[in-house]
Design brief:
Distance between the termini: 40 Å
Structural class: mainly beta
Largest sheet: 6 strands, mixed
Shape: globular
Order of helices and strands: EEEEEEEEEE
Helix content: under 10%
Radius of gyration: 13 Å
Oligomer: single chain
Number of strands: 10
Number of helices: 0
Strand order of the largest sheet: 2-10-9-4-5-6
């Protein structure tokens, strides 16, 4: 059973930065595209960013130029660097292995002054 554990969320002021991390329980990163999703209260879960096994990346339009997804296959780690955060980025952020049922438990990101 694969486990994904997110960390790094918290409360930050608008314009601030956070770095989310996702640790996998075993080596799955080398075989799968990895993704970050988020879900705000009352909203559907949305895809924020993805990174393929070849490290090709893609982002939803609202975070382009502010968020950076990266992966370290040797450490089984996925990251999301979030800069210039806005109140509308407030959500629970989830790590997910594309094409599988593997999801993390989520980490709360709150952007507020």
């Amino acid at each position: 059973q694969v486990q994904l554990v997110e960390s790094g969320g918290g409360l930050v002021q608008p314009g601030g930065s956070l770095r989310l991390s996702c640790a996998a329980s075993r080596s799955i990163f080398t075989r799968y595209t990895m993704t970050w999703y988020r879900q705000a209260p009352g909203n559907q879960r949305e895809l924020v960013a993805q990174i393929t096994t070849n490290r090709n990346t893609d982002y939803t339009d609202s975070v382009k130029g502010r968020f950076t997804i990266s992966r370290d296959n040797a450490k089984n780690m996925l990251y999301l660097q979030m800069n210039n955060l806005k109140p509308e980025d407030t959500a629970v952020y989830y790590c997910h292995t594309a094409g599988t049922n593997y999801w993390g438990q989520g980490t709360q990101v709150t952007v507020s002054s």
